[in-house]
Specification:
With 589 residues, the protein is an alpha/beta fold. Helices cover 32% and strands 21% of the residues. It folds into four domains: 67 residues, Alpha-Beta Plaits; 240 residues, Rossmann fold, CATH 3.40.50; 201 residues, P-loop containing nucleotide triphosphate hydrolases (Rossmann fold, 3-Layer(aba) Sandwich), CATH 3.40.50; 37 residues, no CATH class. Helix 6 packs antiparallel against helix 7 and helix 12 runs parallel beside helix 13. The chain binds adenosine-5'-diphosphate (ADP) (2 copies) and iron/sulfur cluster.
Length: 589
């Protein structure tokens, strides 16, 4: 079976002189394999196409995908966005009394699946003429039949937490209290607000909230609805680990009695909140297959290993591996800068820094709760703020990617990156940054049209492109899928190694911090009141210090060595706390 996908936005026959049609060997031999449709864009006949791939190479706008698929998928087609549109195979089955996770790359059809489950869209089974009756028949014998019947008859009410909480202030005005009151159909506002740490924010205007506060308000608003299907599209962006775990617990508890589905790319958190996961694989923008549910541990492990045994599908050539890293050889250590102790007070917040050194060619993970002074520290290093006591007497150029990125420039990606550095035209940046970060396809797009994940990738590239000796990236993981996080991790590590620079990464995705960091800078104190900076430490010491302050322990999965959060007060949790090993159990090394 073969499908042809045409990206309608990219297909511009007036500009490209229809190269695909000109060179298609089937067209040349007289078949109408590619024609121009009513909308003036190319249409490829999947019946006539022989899959030679010439049109893919000839199209100057990279608008065409021709994908060979196993025949057995043919009778699993759930939805097709029209002729030559994205194809979704399979559908996650929602179930009362459990949290189902959806794990997969961006552009694989997760949102499409949720639109179907929430009744915003009828699955067309790949055919324009499909009716609901056809859909019921198609799903007969599965739990989806009954569910979709209720959806079609509008008997299922759905509640959704949108992906991009940054857009919330544009859609909703007023105080947090008013928003939550309106959403509180179950009469659980006080408990929910307390559980998510929102009690002190109720009288604040929504327009004044930080990203992490907006995220928690949005989660609370969704959770308080009385619905038959709840969907949370990414819960972790902008939240620190402590907040992530609190939200995970709330959602997990909801799932005990309700029907909850979650898309999440922070695997430590997905592991904690989901009972089962459906893996989505395929070709982003081309097709996606949603698997049957797998137990959460097994599903995440299979995903990391890149092979799904039940489906007999390899979804990635290599596994994502966790290893306990040995500290760098002392001869490789070259100092970039040293700082003594200094402090800074901003209104009622005080930051104290103990002093430390940063080295060339290293990646330093920066961990700590929200509001504990990480941004303030970065601004002090960058010379944007001056310390009250002590001094920072080094002259190092710093490039900084902020946590919240906005695209309020009407500029193309290519033009924007060029304005930062002409090196983006060169082969080194192209092969080391643009290609692995999947930015090449975005070069001709406008910054304003990028999705959150695309903008994040461009912002990371832009930060690395500036002329500097030290790079600080604040939450690069936000809105990136697992593949993109892994790729970003590799890009950053190689960038530090090859360019003799230092990269500091502030992030709350523990898997990313683990894979990325050579050493750790640890912030503790009391959020909003005082922060203390310690380190950088080696990973083991740093993680122990950080997790001890949060009172959370991790164990290692036997199969993949990935860290998993221990249940509070479980045997392991107590044992590890007693010996002070919050992260690396001695036997894991
Ligand atoms: P995910 O949520 O996994 O990122 P989506 O379900 O949003 O994936 O999208 C999968 C693909 O479906 C996208 O690449 C897009 O090209 C296509 N798509 C989404 N919505 C539409 C639509 N309304 N019309 C045509 N194609 C669409
Ligand atoms: P983090 O990056 O760890 O989330 P920040 O460094 O942004 O923390 O903030 C630490 C504390 O300092 C917060 O309580 C914040 O409200 C306060 N703060 C940050 N910048 C200013 C400022 N310019 N004026 C007053 N208070 C500030
Ligand atoms: Fe024609 Fe080959 Fe493209 Fe198919 S893959 S449409 S046969 S050029």
């Amino acid at each position: 079976m073969r499908i042809a996908i045409i990206d309608k936005d990219r297909c511009q026959p007036r500009k490209c002189a229809t190269e695909c049609i000109k060179y298609c060997p089937k067209v040349r031999s007289g078949d109408e394999t590619i024609v121009l449709g009513e909308d003036g864009k190319a249409v490829i006949s999947e019946e006539l196409c022989v899959g030679c791939g010439i049109c893919i190479k000839k199209c100057p706008n990279q608008a065409i995908m021709i994908i060979g698929l196993p025949d057995k998928l043919a009778d699993q087609l759930t939805h097709r966005y029209g002729e030559n549109g994205f194809a979704l195979y399979g559908l996650p089955g929602p179930a009362q009394g459990r949290v189902s996770g959806l794990l997969g790359q961006n552009g694989i059809g997760k949102t499409t699946a949720v639109k179907i489950l929430s009744g915003q869209m009828m699955p067309n089974l790949g055919n324009k003429k499909t009716t609901w009756e056809d859909v019921f028949e198609y799903f007969s014998g599965s739990e989806l039949q009954e569910y979709l019947r209720n959806v079609a008859e509008k008997k299922v009410k759905t509640a959704q937490k949108p992906q991009y909480v940054d857009l919330l202030p544009k859609a909703v005005k007023g105080k947090v209290r008013d928003l939550l009151k309106k959403a509180d159909e179950r009469g659980v506002m006080d408990e929910t607000a307390a559980e998510l740490g929102l009690a002190g924010l109720l009288d604040r205007q929504i327009s004044e909230l930080s990203g992490g506060e907006l995220q928690r308000v949005a989660i609370a608003a969704c959770a308080m609805r009385d619905a038959g299907f709840y969907f949370f599209d990414e819960v972790t962006p902008y939240l620190d680990i402590y907040q992530r775990i609190r939200c995970a617990k709330l959602i997990k508890r909801m799932g005990e009695a309700r029907n909850v589905m979650v898309v999440e790319h922070d695997l430590a958190i997905l592991d904690l909140l989901a009972d089962v996961v459906h893996i989505g694989y395929g070709e982003p923008g081309g097709y996606g297959v949603i698997t049957h549910p797998k137990g959460v541990r097994v599903g995440i492990n299979e995903y990391l290993k890149g092979y799904l045994p039940e489906e007999n599908i390899r979804i990635r050539p290599r596994p994502i591996e966790f290893e306990v890293k040995a500290p760098k050889d002392q001869k490789d250590v070259v100092r970039l800068l040293e700082f003594g102790s200094f402090s800074k007070t901003l209104d009622s917040f005080r930051l104290d820094v103990r002093g430390g050194e940063l080295r060339k060619r290293e990646v330093v993970g920066v961990v700590g709760q929200n509001g504990i002074g990480k941004t303030t520290f970065a601004r002090l290093l960058a010379g944007e703020l001056a310390p009250d006591s002590g001094k920072l007497d080094f002259n190092v150029k710093i490039s900084y990617k902020p946590q919240y990125i906005k695209a309020d420039m009407d500029m193309g990606v290519r033009e924007y990156l060029r304005s930062i550095s002409l090196q983006f035209e060169g082969s080194y940046f192209r092969s080391e940054i643009l290609a692995p970060m999947q930015i090449e396809r975005l070069m001709d797009c406008s910054l304003n049209d990028l999705s959150g994940g695309e903008l994040q990738r461009v912002a990371i590239a832009a930060c690395l492109g500036r002329d500097a000796q030290m790079f600080i990236l604040d939450e690069p993981s936000a809105h990136l899928d697992v593949e993109q996080r892994t790729m970003t991790t590799k890009v950053i590590k190689r960038f530090a190694e090859n360019n003799d620079v230092t990269v500091c990464v502030i992030d709350h995705d523990i898997y990313m911090i683990d894979l990325l960091s050579d050493r750790l800078l640890v912030f503790d104190g009391e959020p909003g009141v005082r922060g203390e900076v310690h380190g950088p430490f080696n990973m083991r010491e740093g993680m122990n210090r950080f997790l001890a302050s949060l009172d959370i322990t991790f164990r290692r999965d036997e199969e993949t060595k990935r860290p998993r959060v221990n249940k509070a007060d479980s045997n392991l949790d107590r044992e590890q706390k007693k010996i002070g090993e919050y992260y690396y159990l001695p036997q894991a090394e």
